[in-house]
Amino acid sequence: MTPDLPIDRYAIDGLEEGLLGADIGAELTTSLIDRIEARVRDERITSMDRLTEVLRDETRALIPQRQASTIEIARAKPFVILVVGVNGTGKTTTIAKLAARHVADRRRARVGLVMADTLRVGAREQLGAYARLLDVPMEVARDGGELRAALARFADRDAVYVDTAGLGGDPDEAAAVDAMLGAAEEPIARAAVVSAGASERALHAAWRQFDRLGPASCIVTKVDEGASLGTACTWLRERQLALAWLGTGQRVPDDLAIPSGSALVRWLVAA
Ligand SMILES: Nc1nc2c(ncn2[C@@H]2O[C@H](COP(=O)(O)OP(=O)(O)OP(=O)(O)O)[C@@H](O)[C@H]2O)c(=O)[nH]1
Ligand SMILES: [Mg+2]
Question: Of 62, 78, 104, which residue is a domain's last?
Answer without folding.
Answer: 62
